[in-house]
Amino acid sequence: MQKHHKVLIIGAGPAGVSTAIYLKRAGVSVEIIERNRVGGLIINARRIDNYAGFPNGVTGTKFVQLLNMHIQRLELPVLYEDLLHLDYADDTFTARTNKSTHSADFVVVATGTKPKVPEIRGLYKIDADLWAYEPFFFQNIIDEKIAVIGAGDAAFDYALSLAERNSTVILNRSDRTRCLNILEIEALSHKNIEYKTNAPVSEVIEYNRILHFYDSQGVTICSANRLLIAIGRIADYGFLSDNIADKIVELNSQNRFFIIGDAQNGIFRQSSIAVGDGVRAAMSITAMLNKEIK
């Protein structure tokens, strides 16, 4: 049976949750569809130092706990399903998940990003539990060596997080970084972090659950127990139908459809920006509804 909602929010990260909070307080019914967990990627943050109101910073884990507390206090409905397809026809949105079908008058897409897939030979031949795109999946790993491929904020922050209980090696394909200077300084001075420049990984081979990394010439770069890939991310809304894709500008101008947060902010992926996006979308929807009522 298809369920109808006034507002359907796709994603329960900071952007999606802030949208739902504002709408709930405005008396607008919402439904949140979330693929994995509340908070999205922010759970991987070792420490958030640039969010106003947390003078001593806050860990990603704690921030997610606070988001869950807010959701529970306001009794916001979160449906943990994977959205497969979103369409628009006859003035109504239709969302099909892996378990159910929903319709809505308004939709807010706050799905964040998905990782860029590296071209590394042998990657998909190694055991699935030995590599990941998020340190969240290695949270229970202790006293192992973890290789981190990347040179941006995420790579250095993830390496610092994992180095609390493991040794890590950052593999940078060039000699340039794309991270905040403060992160680079902290990482390079950490006793549990090794940093290799001009180390482009072209192949990985697993032998007795040890990963061996090689460059394009077959020269050994290093070995490790686990691999974390942090080479960048791209917007995640491939579930949109062509019908919606062709009408995004029109639907947005009507305050019916929004893509917010990391899903549309490019390099400006910050939790504070995502929260602001969510509030703006919610205010636009309530303004539209008030106009319809009048």
Sheet with the most strands, sense and barrel status: 7 strands, mixed
Share of β-strand residues:
25-35%
Pairing-aware structural class of the strands and helices?
alpha/beta
| Multimeric organization | single chain
Topology order in helix (H) and strand (E) letters: EHEHEEEEEEEHEHEEEEEEHHEH
The total of helices stands at 7
Counted beta strands = 17
Spans of 5+ residues with little confidence (pLDDT < 50)? none
Question: How many angstroms separate the termini?
Answer: 32 Å
Using only C-alpha atoms, the radius of gyration works out to: 21 Å
Overall 3D shape = elongated
What can you tell me about this protein's structure?
The protein is of the alpha/beta class and 294 residues long. Helix content is 27%, strand content 28%. It contains seven helices and 17 strands. Strands 1, 2, 3, 4, 5, 6 and 17 form a seven-stranded mixed sheet that branches. A five-stranded parallel sheet has the order 8-15-9-10-11, covered by helices on one side. Helix 3 links the parallel strand 9 and strand 10. The radius of gyration is 21 Å and the shape is elongated. The mean pLDDT is 95.
Question: How is the topology of this model organized?
Answer:
Elements: E1 3-10, H1 14-25, E2 30-34, H2 60-74, E3 78-80, E4 83-89, E5 92-97, E6 101-109, E7 113-115, E8 131-132, E9 145-149, H3 153-162, E10 167-171, H4 181-188, E11 193-196, E12 203-207, E13 210-214, E14 220-224, E15 226-229, E16 233-235, H5 242-245, H6 248-253, E17 257-259, H7 271-293
Parallel strand pairs: 1-2, 1-6, 2-3, 6-17, 8-15, 9-10, 9-15, 10-11
Antiparallel strand pairs: 4-5, 5-6, 7-16, 12-13, 13-14
